[in-house]
Write a structure and sequence with these properties.
238 residues, alpha/beta, Rossmann fold, six-stranded mixed sheet, two-stranded antiparallel ribbon, 6 helices, 8 strands, binds iron/sulfur cluster
Length: 238
C-alpha cells in the first residue's frame, strides 16, 4: 500500500469506529477541500454520521455552492445552522457590520455569534463530532490529534485527517473526482467568511489568508477554543 492508500484505510477505520461506538455523531463541514474528502468517505460508505455546516451569513457564494454540489453529487442535504438573528442585529447595530477588523476581541465576539453559538446547537445531544482539521495547516494546529477529549463540549472530537498533508487531500480529490469549492483554484487554500479570508501567495502558510491582520497564534475561530485558549485538553490514543 502506498502512503495515501494507508491514510485512506486508517481514516475509513476511524469513521467506521465513530459511527459504531459514538452514535449519535456529527461532522462539522466548513465546505473546504478537507471537508469534501470526509464528505466523500462518509457518504460513499453510507455511515450514519450527520453532516452540517455553519452558514454564518458572511460566506462566499462559491462556498454555499458546495452545498448544492453535494446535493447534486451524493443526493445528500447538508444541514445548515444559522446564527441567532437578534444577536447578529444587536452586534451590527452596536459595532458596525465589519467591527471584527478593529480588535481580536471584536473578531471573537463576531465568531461567537455567527459560529460558536450555532455550533453549540448543532452539537447538542451528540456523543462525538468530527472536523476536517489537519496538523500541518498552521501553528495553532501543530499538536492536533486524531482523537481528542473535548471537555468544553462534553464529548469526543475526531480529526480523522490530522495526519494528512495538503498534497494527500488534493490527490484524493482528483482521484475520486470529488466536487470542491471553486475558491481553491483562485489562491484560497483555507476558506472562511468572505470578509475574513483572502488569497495567499505561493509559499505562504495555508492559513495566512485567514484573519490576516492578526497574530498567527490567535487565528482560530472559536470553534476550537474556550476562554481564548485552544481546546487541546487531552489526546486519546486512537
Ligand atoms: S470569520 Fe469574520 S465574519 Fe465570520 S464570524 Fe468570524 S469575525 Fe465574523
Amino acid at each position: 500500500m502506498n502512503d495515501l492508500t494507508s491514510l485512506i484505510a486508517a481514516t475509513q477505520a476511524t469513521l467506521e469506529r465513530i459511527a459504531r461506538d459514538f452514535s449519535p455523531a456529527v461532522f462539522a463541514s466548513s465546505l473546504a477541500a478537507e471537508d469534501m474528502v470526509l464528505t466523500d468517505l462518509i457518504l460513499k460508505a453510507g455511515l450514519p454520521i450527520g453532516i452540517f455546516s455553519l452558514d454564518t451569513g458572511r460566506l462566499h457564494p462559491e462556498t454555499l455552492a458546495v452545498v448544492d454540489a453535494v446535493k447534486a453529487r451524493y443526493d445528500y442535504a447538508i444541514a445548515l445552522y444559522h446564527p441567532n438573528a437578534q444577536a447578529v442585529d444587536a452586534y451590527v447595530a452596536e459595532n458596525g457590520l465589519n467591527a471584527f477588523y478593529d480588535s481580536v476581541e471584536m473578531r471573537r465576539a463576531c465568531c461567537g455569534i455567527r459560529k460558536v453559538e450555532p455550533l453549540g446547537r448543532a452539537l447538542a445531544g451528540k456523543r462525538a463530532w468530527v472536523t476536517g482539521q489537519r496538523r500541518a495547516q498552521s501553528t495553532t494546529r501543530a499538536e492536533l490529534a486524531v482523537e481528542e477529549d473535548d471537555a468544553a463540549h462534553g464529548m469526543t472530537k475526531f480529526n480523522p485527517l490530522a495526519d494528512w498533508s495538503e498534497q494527500d487531500v488534493w490527490d484524493y480529490i482528483r482521484a475520486n473526482d470529488v466536487p470542491y469549492n471553486a475558491l481553491h483554484d483562485q489562491g484560497f487554500p483555507s476558506i472562511g467568511c468572505a470578509p475574513c479570508t483572502r488569497a495567499v501567495q505561493p509559499g505562504e502558510d495555508v492559513r495566512a489568508g485567514r484573519w490576516w491582520w492578526e497574530n498567527p497564534d490567535s487565528k482560530e475561530c472559536g470553534l476550537h477554543m474556550v476562554d481564548g485558549k485552544l481546546i487541546r485538553i487531552k489526546s486519546v490514543a486512537a
